[in-house]
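ARCHIVE CARD
CATEGORY: sequence design from structure
SOURCE FIELD: tokenized fold
FIELD CONTENT:
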């Protein structure tokens, strides 16, 4: 039997799962970052672990991808609905980094 992860299987928002994920980030991850600040994240990895990860050059970027303002509002609402927990977790990390950049490094 295969798992069907289509929208019909959506179980809805579960705050307990989000809280558990936030707790895990705070307690089990030495470094946290977000895509928009990838260079800062790489720098944190290098500084925290003594690594020498080289920065990257963008490759294979989809040029035909629609801009967010080109996506119908009802489509965006549906995407947000089914990704609510992911969005909340992302906002948690983003806000933590914004309010205290040193929080990118946890002592675990």
């Amino acid at each position: 039997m295969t798992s069907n992860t289509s929208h019909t299987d959506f179980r809805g928002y579960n705050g307990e799962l989000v809280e558990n994920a936030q707790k895990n980030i705070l307690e089990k991850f030495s470094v946290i970052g977000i895509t928009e600040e990838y260079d800062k994240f790489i720098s944190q990895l290098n500084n925290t672990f003594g690594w020498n990860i080289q920065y990257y050059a963008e490759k294979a970027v989809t040029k035909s991808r629609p801009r967010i303002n080109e996506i119908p509002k009802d489509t965006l609402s549906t995407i947000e609905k089914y990704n609510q927990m992911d969005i909340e977790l992302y906002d948690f990390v983003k806000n933590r980094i914004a309010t205290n950049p040193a929080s990118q490094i946890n002592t675990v």
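CARD ANNOTATION: The chain is about 50% helix and 0% strand. Residues 13-104 form one domain.
SHELF: design records, drawer C
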